[in-house]
């Protein structure tokens, strides 16, 4: 701060610097659509308390009164719903770093509820009634228990009486101790990727920038996950029953930097070929292959399909899969994006050896990872 800002610069002085003058909700939406995403979650308010809509409970500290002088939540909501079939979600922080009422409640060990009654809860009702998000991503319990936040009361309204009661999905961050225990789906921790099957639906919320959720001017190329690393995250997550929520940090003037845009569009390119092995799939009996590394499985039970997603193309041109049990004359195998049936050999005591097609680099259906569709295996 001393090196970059004037003396006595306060946090609220950042308000006018956040202009969003280049923010174009339609452009953002086109990038999200191109990424292959099925839902987006906008940070409507983070721990500093600045709301991206003109909340009447955040007087003079919101995007309509300060900085952009625009309702950014509304602009993005309208663009998402008019231009795409993506689900529109909103992140909201329960607590605020600097709010005097929260700090006073905290000093009294949360035995009084001035802050949630006058700020958090009215704001949440306002947010849901005004924008009708289909995902409500709560965060920031401030080490206060759920009864301080009256989370069960709010959630009862959300699921029974709110305008999104039939479609809304929520996470697990509704008070100290609720994470990974109570929620529509679990997030457990930031960048959560357990590598094994969980009994409850979960989400891996992670960042493309390895070190930050926001935009960093000083980030170097090696600070960003490569598309190969992102595909690996996606495949591991989905095979274990999770969803992937990839975070990008826009700039203060409302743009998505080209490195983030490139990663999102690359993911969309990969999903155009391999989305069949990702969307609407279920975890299989085995999540990964225990002999061949970097092979992960998903399934579609009703269609009797299993997908083997492999992240390294074997130099031998043959891929050994130890988990599937195939039947001669019944089992069929094809490479997504290629389509022709592939030859395979059943091995004893189990597993099979798949003959991959001989393809030049330009004939490859995609880069960064491939998927086999296996019909009628057990």
Automatic annotation (TrEMBL):
GO terms for molecular function: alpha-L-fucosidase activity. Pfam families: Alpha_L_fucos, Fucosidase_C. It comes from the Eukaryota. GO terms for biological process: fucose metabolic process; glycoside catabolic process. Residues 1-276 form the Glycoside hydrolase family 29 N-terminal domain. Keywords: Glycoprotein, Glycosidase, Hydrolase, Signal. Its EC number is 3.2.1.51. The record marks 205 as: May be important for catalysis. It is an enzyme of class 3 (hydrolase). Alpha-L-fucosidase is responsible for hydrolyzing the alpha-1,6-linked fucose joined to the reducing-end N-acetylglucosamine of the carbohydrate moieties of glycoproteins. This is Tissue alpha-L-fucosidase. It comes from Zalophus californianus. The gene is FUCA2.
């Amino acid at each position: 701060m001393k090196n970059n800002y004037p003396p006595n610069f306060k946090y609220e002085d950042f308000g006018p610097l956040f202009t969003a003058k280049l923010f174009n909700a339609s452009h953002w939406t086109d990038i999200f659509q191109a990424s292959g995403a099925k839902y987006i979650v906008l940070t409507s308010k983070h721990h500093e308390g600045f709301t991206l809509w003109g909340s009447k409970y955040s007087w003079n500290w919101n995007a309509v009164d300060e900085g952009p002088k625009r309702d950014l939540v509304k602009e993005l909501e309208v663009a998402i719903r008019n231009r795409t079939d993506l689900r529109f979600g909103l992140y909201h922080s329960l607590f605020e770093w600097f709010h005097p009422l929260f700090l006073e409640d905290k000093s009294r060990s949360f035995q009084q509820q001035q802050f949630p009654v006058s700020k958090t809860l009215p704001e949440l009702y306002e947010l849901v009634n005004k924008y009708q998000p289909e995902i409500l991503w709560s965060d920031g319990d401030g080490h206060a228990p759920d009864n301080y936040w009256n989370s069960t009361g709010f959630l009862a309204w959300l699921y029974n009486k709110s305008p999104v009661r039939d479609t809304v999905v929520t996470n697990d961050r509704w008070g100290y101790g609720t994470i990974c225990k109570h929620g529509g789906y679990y997030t457990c921790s930031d960048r959560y990727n357990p590598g094994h099957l969980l009994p409850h639906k979960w989400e891996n919320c992670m960042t493309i920038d390895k070190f930050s959720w926001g935009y960093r001017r000083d980030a170097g190329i090696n600070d960003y996950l490569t598309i190969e690393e992102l595909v690996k995250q996606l495949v591991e997550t989905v095979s274990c029953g999770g969803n992937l929520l990839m975070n990008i940090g826009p700039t203060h003037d409302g743009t998505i930097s080209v490195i983030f845009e490139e990663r999102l569009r690359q993911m969309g390119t990969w999903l155009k070929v391999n989305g069949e092995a990702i969307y609407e799939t279920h975890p299989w009996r085995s999540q990964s292959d225990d002999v061949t590394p970097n092979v992960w499985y998903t399934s579609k039970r009703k269609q009797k399909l299993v997908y083997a997603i492999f992240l390294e193309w074997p130099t031998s041109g043959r891929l050994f899969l130890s988990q599937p049990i195939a039947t001669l004359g019944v089992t069929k195998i094809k490479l997504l994006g290629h389509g022709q049936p592939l030859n395979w050999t059943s091995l004893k005591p189990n597993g099979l050896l798949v003959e991959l097609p001989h393809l030049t680099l330009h004939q490859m259906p995609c880069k960064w990872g491939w998927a086999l569709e296996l019909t009628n295996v057990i």
